[in-house]
Design a protein that fits this description.
Distance between the termini: 39 Å
Strand content: 5-15%
CATH class of the domain at 1-81 and 95-195 and 612-640: Mainly Alpha
Radius of gyration: 25 Å
Shape: globular
Number of strands: 12
Number of helices: 21
Largest sheet: 4 strands, mixed
Mean pLDDT: 90
Strand order of the largest sheet: 9-10-11-12
């Protein structure tokens, strides 16, 4: 990724955005670098790095800037907000076009430009991969083996970018390196098949190396995983099954390590990224050059406010619907598949941060507290989440904060860097995790009737989550507490009005209690009396499915539910609902019907079956598809 800025300058000179106006496409840029200058191994490798660099959805600076939070690799807007896992966040006046997307009211005019940002990013990615393939053919110093490898990596990336467009808009243009602008066929988008994506991924799977010299490059198994994912989206379960079985038995990372589940939290920690669970990830880095653009720019809005990590901007707040999924049966430790949303996990909405609050005492799946920031529970190493103080508009967007995209306080300045109004961080975006592979395999077994094999795959995922060493606990506050006390006398000394080193929202851990207990100073009265809030450890209980699965509908429900628990806030949910063909029922009945009583901005929201499964193609892109004869080639999706 350190080459991103250098490669950007090259790309600006030689690449032409496919979404630019056609009257400009055939004009030579000032200072154009002749392709022959790059038609060598070094130049082609630089172009390939440039194609990789756009995986994060953001590239460039100034007038060449492409992408923003609308094109984030995490798909937090489209996959999670539109998939019911999160509210827009912030306040009513900030980024209302995202709220329009959450209500399924976006139009082709694309207010806010989020959809066009995504379109431009993925098709610039396609353009970059095609430039690699086209210019590579002119090079004379690339060996046959290297040619095959570069070709395989390029078409893998091209498949990824087309895949992103396909799941967003369905009818899309498929563009290869042979397409010329004069041919006028780039804009034709009447092909809804997956054959182009399948073909590129099959080539990549058959020709990519098993291991790579750079951890961020795609290997054979990454291509195999994306091909399996394509089959899952197509509903081709028999095609996906042997690929998933091979990945489970033999799959390895680009570094040559066998796929394995790791501590759940390690998947979202920049210090432990690229683990054995990372099948393919977007690589991020910070503190390498001034713009911070190599950091996770697409998620730059998604940090708590006022003293929390990042300091801005309060977006992407987890929904109560999502939080309620994590309740478990106090006896069995299993989720409540049918009635999880009948009663809320207790939250602090309506409580000031300096008022006493007791978090939910019922049993919970521990993955909740690596997914959602909620009051009283350690927020990484930042101490217990203070509630309203960190929430921009609690009454409008609820009491929760995102967590998987955040860096630790001890990592500030190392895995984060402040640029302008917010922080960038080096937390990779996991496009496919090994847990995803296991849950796809479970889904395939349900469809083939092997219900107990599906249960075993689900249990492998649950067993990792049930490992108590990975749970959020009060002990996590000890290294960063303002004080740790070992007796009642030590705590009384701190509580004395004359002791002023402890300020509101500092925390103290008492080691003399069993279990250890965290106390947060909420306020200091005028007479020096301190008001404390004691937080008990969360009540976690998660167990495996032990009874045989005999009913297909129950098994299917359990597998789909597990995807929410395991992959919540990772940008997958909406696209899962669409590929399962249940988006209308899940969003309207399971989500909107209850959430509009909790969140006023969702009043009257409605998902329209047959329309909202795909997003409107930005009108600006359709306007740019008009040819010399006035024919508009890019067709709009139905209903828009």
């Amino acid at each position: 990724m350190r080459y991103k800025k250098l490669v950007l300058n090259i790309m600006i000179a030689i690449l032409i955005l496919y979404s630019c106006a056609k009257d400009k496409l055939n004009q030579s840029a000032l200072g154009l670098v002749d392709e022959s200058t790059l038609a060598n191994k070094h130049g082609v490798e630089g172009l390939l790095i440039g194609a990789y660099s756009l995986l994060d959805g953001v590239s460039g600076g100034g007038s060449s800037f492409v992408g923003s939070w609308g094109s984030a690799a995490s798909n937090w807007i489209y996959g999670s907000i539109c998939g019911s896992e999160a509210y827009t966040g912030s306040n009513p006046g900030d980024q209302p076009p995202i709220t329009s997307l959450a209500r399924f009211e976006s139009t082709p005019s694309d207010e806010g430009g989020n959809l066009d940002s995504k379109w431009r990013a993925v098709y610039e990615g396609v353009a970059r991969t095609n430039a690699v393939l086209r210019i590579m053919r002119q090079a004379k110093d690339i060996s046959p083996d290297d040619t095959t490898e570069i070709h395989a990596e390029a078409v893998f990336l091209r498949a990824f970018y087309h895949f992103e467009a396909k799941k967003m808009w369905n009818k899309i243009p498929f563009v290869d390196e042979t397409v010329t602008y004069s041919a006028g066929n780039y804009y034709i988008n009447n092909d809804t098949s997956w054959s182009f994506i399948e073909s590129d991924l099959k080539y990549a799977m058959d020709h990519l190396h098993l291991t790579q010299s750079s951890v961020g490059r795609a290997n054979k198994y990454a291509a195999e995983a994306f091909l399996a994912k394509a089959y899952m989206f197509e509903g081709k379960y028999p095609n996906a099954k042997p690929l998933l079985e091979d990945l489970i038995q033999n799959g390895e990372t680009a570094g040559g390590n066998k796929y394995e589940l790791v501590n759940y939290a390690d998947n979202f920690n920049p210090e432990t990224k690229n683990s054995t669970e990372a099948v393919f990830s977007v690589q991020t880095s910070v503190n390498d050059f001034g713009s911070g653009i190599n950091g996770n720019y697409g998620d730059v809005l998604n940090f708590p406010q006022n003293g929390g990590p990042g300091g801005c901007c309060g977006f992407f707040q987890p929904s109560q619907w999502l939080v309620n999924h994590f309740k478990t049966d106090p006896v069995t430790g299993l989720p409540d598949l049918g009635h999880f949303n009948d009663k809320n996990v207790t939250n602090d909405e309506g409580y000031a941060s300096d008022s006493i609050f007791t978090p939910y005492t019922g049993t919970l799946d521990p993955r909740l507290d690596w997914t959602v920031g909620r009051r009283g529970v350690p927020y990484l190493d930042w101490g217990p989440h203070p509630g309203k103080k960190w929430i921009r508009d609690q009454s409008y967007m609820g009491p929760y904060a995102p967590k998987k995209n955040t860096f630790q306080e001890s990592q500030a300045g190392i895995y984060s860097n402040a640029e302008g109004w917010s922080n960038f961080n080096a937390n990779n975006v996991n496009l496919i995790r090994y847990a995803d592979i296991l849950l796809w395999a479970a889904e395939v077994e349900v469809e083939s009737g092997e219900l107990n094999k599906a249960r075993d795959y689900v249990n492998r995922v649950r067993a990792r989550a049930a490992e108590s060493s990975g749970w959020v606990k009060n002990d996590d506050n000890i290294p960063y507490a303002k004080r740790v006390t070992y007796s009642q006398a030590e705590f009384d000394a701190i509580n004395d009005p004359s002791f002023t080193d402890i300020q509101p929202f500092n925390w103290v851990v008492r080691k003399d209690l069993t279990p250890n207990q965290t106390w947060v100073l909420l306020s200091v009265k005028s007479d020096g009396t301190k008001v404390w809030n004691a937080y008990d450890p969360p009540n976690y209980k998660l167990d495996l499915y032990t009874d045989p699965w005999t009913d297909k509908a129950h098994a299917q429900q359990a597998v789909r539910f597990e995807r929410v628990l395991e992959l919540g806030m990772e940008g997958h949910r909406f696209f899962d609902l669409v590929r399962w063909n249940i988006a209308d029922a899940e969003i309207n009945t399971s989500y909107f019907q209850k959430e509009e009583t909790r969140r006023s901005f969702l009043n009257g929201a409605n998902f329209k079956k047959g329309i909202n499964e795909y997003f409107p193609i930005p009108q600006i892109e359709r306007d740019l598809s008009v040819d010399a004869h006035g024919v508009q080639h890019l067709k709009q999706n139905p209903g828009y």
